[in-house]
Description:
Elements: H1 19-23, H2 42-49, E1 55-60, E2 66-71, E3 74-76, E4 79-85, H3 87-95, E5 98-103, E6 112-122, E7 132-146, E8 160-164
Antiparallel strand pairs: 1-2, 1-5, 3-4, 4-7, 5-6, 6-7, 7-8
Amino acid sequence: MSNGFIIHRPGEPGIPHTFAQVMAGNTYALRMGTKSARKVDFKRLADALDGYRFAYLVTVDDEYRVHTVTVEPELRERVMDVGPIGGRTRKNVESRSSVTLLWPPSEPAGYSLIVDGRAEVVETADTDDNTAALRVVPIRALLHRNADPKTPGSAKGCLHDCVVFSEP
């Protein structure tokens, strides 16, 4: 455990790492602290995606430097089809499959949509050493914005207003 997060390694029980497991409905969110892993609510995620035009794909390199590119992912069943990626993103994903997709809000007080997931490089007819297609299996999805203490129903002392897309 580190900084309140439990880090899952490939092959740990209960955490899927293959697309076959995802398609079988075994997608779980990462565990934070001592909370249990929860399944992503793909219906709510799909509904939320309608309000966003593009996302930023965030990866890290071998020295943990962040690399961010603009993408237009589409949710197909339980997998985000990110589309084509370049060589640096491909290299990062092949070293570290954990990625984040971040859709910015369309207005200043709006929600950002954040999807954490496991990425997989997909070979296509156009693939070479510098390009490929990318798919991401969502393991956590949420809407996020700064909390407004003047809004009725806001929790006192909260800095953020989050809506987590997980099944009960």
